[in-house]
């Protein structure tokens, strides 16, 4: 009988750790003119809403026990998610993945009413860890839709925050992703029009979009207060000050973190010669240091400080031991934990109340 050969099996090559080039090799490749230094942005890292959401999961695990289910990533950061998974958090995409009657936490980015209804239908116990600043935008969307205004929601379609806000008034909302869409979007009544925005956008690009919309629709109304959150604005302001002085900017943050990605864009727009985003210090390519005297360092609003300190240690190994902090704002905002969790803490005698914000908890 003729024999047939089995389909070839692909065996992946084992991963070989990349050899990091030494400081001496980098210096020889491209000598640096001037003293090496780090320009460290302040504020950076955790905002009050992120801190609140992360603590909500930690406290839920402590008082309810594992597993605690979380719809989507509680915040957009790999390190935070993996650390909480190790403690017993289970991250799911939708509520139908959660066993009936179990506890589920809604992420800091917020959810639409349809998600809340889905959880109720499955008899899930819920803790809403939506950032209060996102909740504010949700309430604005509901209020303006009830007043028969059409909402132009400036944001990135598909982002969890935008999905949640859009879901509050889908028939009265149009998403505007970028300046090009602002030039072509059509509305039914240009005299009953208001804009809202995702909280983590580039301040400059958002205002560019608003200006284009206002040119086309002169009666466009502004929201009662700025929708872009204080933390996003402050981190962008800090990197704007650093960028013109930086040969290289390193932004610590995850790829799905909108505000982290924006920081790279802002750094380049404001004069940094190069800018890169990394999740962890070991992702930094030492070739980036060739010919570089000044390195700007910042982190997105969902990044724990421990990851920034890892980057600073690596930079010190390559001669960037001098660290000058560039302070553009002070943050002292605190948010109370979700009301559902506060009741449980009170019952258990846990006095935790206002939590979240710069300097309110140790790095983890």
UniProtKB/TrEMBL annotation:
Protein keywords: 4Fe-4S, Iron, Iron-sulfur, Isoprene biosynthesis, Metal-binding, Oxidoreductase
Cofactor notes: Binds 1 [4Fe-4S] cluster per subunit.
Record: active site: 161 (proton donor)
UniProt KW Iron keyword: yes
Pathway field: Isoprenoid biosynthesis; isopentenyl diphosphate biosynthesis via DXP pathway; isopentenyl diphosphate from 1-deoxy-D-xylulose 5-phosphate: step 6/6; Isoprenoid biosynthesis; dimethylallyl diphosphate biosynthesis; dimethylallyl diphosphate from (2E)-4-hydroxy-3-methylbutenyl diphosphate: step 1/1
Disordered: annotated segments: 1-21
Pfam families membership: LYTB
Catalytic activity: isopentenyl diphosphate + 2 oxidized [2Fe-2S]-[ferredoxin] + H2O = (2E)-4-hydroxy-3-methylbut-2-enyl diphosphate + 2 reduced [2Fe-2S]-[ferredoxin] + 2 H(+); dimethylallyl diphosphate + 2 oxidized [2Fe-2S]-[ferredoxin] + H2O = (2E)-4-hydroxy-3-methylbut-2-enyl diphosphate + 2 reduced [2Fe-2S]-[ferredoxin] + 2 H(+)
Any single GO BP term: dimethylallyl diphosphate biosynthetic process
Residues binding (2E)-4-hydroxy-3-methylbut-2-enyl diphosphate, per UniProt: 76, 109, 159, 199, 257-259, 302
Binding site for [4Fe-4S] cluster: 47, 131, 229
EC number: 1.17.7.4
Gene Ontology terms, MF aspect: 4 iron, 4 sulfur cluster binding; 4-hydroxy-3-methylbut-2-enyl diphosphate reductase activity; metal ion binding
UniProt cofactor(s): [4Fe-4S] cluster
Enzyme class: oxidoreductase
Domain of life: Bacteria
NCBIfam families named in the record: ispH_lytB, PRK01045.1-3, PRK01045.1-4
PANTHER family referenced in this protein's UniProt entry, alphabetically: 4-HYDROXY-3-METHYLBUT-2-ENYL DIPHOSPHATE REDUCTASE
Function as written in the Swiss-Prot or TrEMBL entry: Catalyzes the conversion of 1-hydroxy-2-methyl-2-(E)-butenyl 4-diphosphate (HMBPP) into a mixture of isopentenyl diphosphate (IPP) and dimethylallyl diphosphate (DMAPP). Acts in the terminal step of the DOXP/MEP pathway for isoprenoid precursor biosynthesis.
Protein name: 4-hydroxy-3-methylbut-2-enyl diphosphate reductase
């Amino acid at each position: 009988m003729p024999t047939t050969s089995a389909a070839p099996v692909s065996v992946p090559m084992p991963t070989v750790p990349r050899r990091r080039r030494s400081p001496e090799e980098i210096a020889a490749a491209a000598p640096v003119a001037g003293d090496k230094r780090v320009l460290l942005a302040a504020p950076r890292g955790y905002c009050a809403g992120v801190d609140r959401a992360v603590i909500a999961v930690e406290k839920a695990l402590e008082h309810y026990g594992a597993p605690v289910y979380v719809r989507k990533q509680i915040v957009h950061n790999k390190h935070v998610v993996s650390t909480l998974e190790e403690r017993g958090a289970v991250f799911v995409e939708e509520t139908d993945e959660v066993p009936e009657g179990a506890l589920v936490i809604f992420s800091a980015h917020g959810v639409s009413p349809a998600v809340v209804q889905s959880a109720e239908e499955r008899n899930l116990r819920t803790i809403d860890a939506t950032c209060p600043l996102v909740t504010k935008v949700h309430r604005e969307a509901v209020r303006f839709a009830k007043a028969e205004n059409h909402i132009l929601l400036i944001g990135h379609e598909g982002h969890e925050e935008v999905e949640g806000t859009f879901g509050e008034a889908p028939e009265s909302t149009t998403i505007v992703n970028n300046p090009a869409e602002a030039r072509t979007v059509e509305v039914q009544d240009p005299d009953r029009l208001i804009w809202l925005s995702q909280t983590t956008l580039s301040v400059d690009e958002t205002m560019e979009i608003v200006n284009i919309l206002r040119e086309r629709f002169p009666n466009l109304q502004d929201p009662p207060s700025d929708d872009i959150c204080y933390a996003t604005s402050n981190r962008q302001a800090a990197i704007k000050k650093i960028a013109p002085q930086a040969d290289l900017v390193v932004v610590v943050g995850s790829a799905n973190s909108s505000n982290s990605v924006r920081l790279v864009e802002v750094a380049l727009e404001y004069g940094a010669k190069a800018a890169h985003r990394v999740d962890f210090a070991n992702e930094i390519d030492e070739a980036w240091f060739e010919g570089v005297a000044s390195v700007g360092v910042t982190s997105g609003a969902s990044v724990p400080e421990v990851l920034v300190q890892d980057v600073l240690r690596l930079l010190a190994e390559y001669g960037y031991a001098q660290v000058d902090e560039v302070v553009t704002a002070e943050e002292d905002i605190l948010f109370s934990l979700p009301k559902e969790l506060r009741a449980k803490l009170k019952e258990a005698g846990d006095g935790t109340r206002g939590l979240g914000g710069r300097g309110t908890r140790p790095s983890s």
